[in-house]
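Before drawing any conclusions, I looked closely at one protein's amino acid sequence and its backbone structure tokens, quoted below without any editing.
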Amino acid sequence: MKIAVVGVTGLVGNVILQVLTERHFETCTLLAVASERSIGKSIEFNGKEYKVISVTEAIEACPDIAIFSAGSGVSLQFASLFAEKGTYVIDNSSAWRMYDHIPLIVPEINACILKANDRIIANPNCSTIQMVMALFPLHKQFTIRRIVVSTYQSVTGTGMKALNQLNCERKNFPCKKAYPYPIDLNVIPHGGSFEDNGYTSEEMKLINETRKILSDNSLQITSTVVRVPVKGGHSLSVNVEFEKDFTLTEIYQALEDMPGVTIMDNPMENQYPMPLYTENKDEVFVGRIRRDFSRERCLNLWIVADNLRKGAATNAVEIAEHIVSQKWIADKVK
């Protein structure tokens, strides 16, 4: 089996390789794919050395799976070309997410909708993934009416340039800026680009992708995205209004029963999710679970996850694992 990682030299690309190794993914051949300036560089994976190749070379090699993490432009240009060769494309960018015919997948929630002929599969936005992981079991049991979410997103969600900006500012070094303002010792209420409705593109992703993943366009959602001076790990403050009333015991039980979700909620002992704790972990951590006493049937949650792992690489690899488990690749080879 051949697997291509497109954008292999980037932040998420490196973590994809790490997750593939940790999960003992049965990879016969790795196609390490990156931009022209990286072609010929060496990448180590599973104890072997691979040379970085171009996207065109990877398409000609007809991989069974291609995991994209190279931006929307690259995905729009090349994903269909891979798919035409019979490759399963798992795309981390926003390029394909809102097309009706493209499945938007969080495996613990909706892998069941995937079909063998789904050749392009979208990976959701990092913050969306961790939010729906916690909200999915609650929606099933109590029916969500409204969501108010504010995110506190780390700089690795923007990319290497933003991480370099934070590191340089902390050392008082000059650098090229990813943000319009300093990020160290600051917070910036600006994620993505501003749209005509006053929301940013990152905020609209939370709204639109959540509705699609949960298959419920009636959900009322409002969001605010804030970039914070943290290297890795996204944190979400989420207020949820339900159709049905609940007890906190029922909330805890629903979250405990959800695969991939871990409750970390003992505030009297100063135990709650933080980016420092979630680093290099695949779980979505939920804490500060409490009623909102200002409204009926409302709940507050604090949700934290490693944005490079479950928010990107791990979710993509889990989709790949599902494809393999369904034996669709074996059928393709036949």
About this structure: Residues 126-142 form the longest helix (17 residues). The CA atoms of residues 90 and 121 lie 5 Å apart. The domain at 2-124+312-333 is CATH 3.40.50.720 (Rossmann fold).
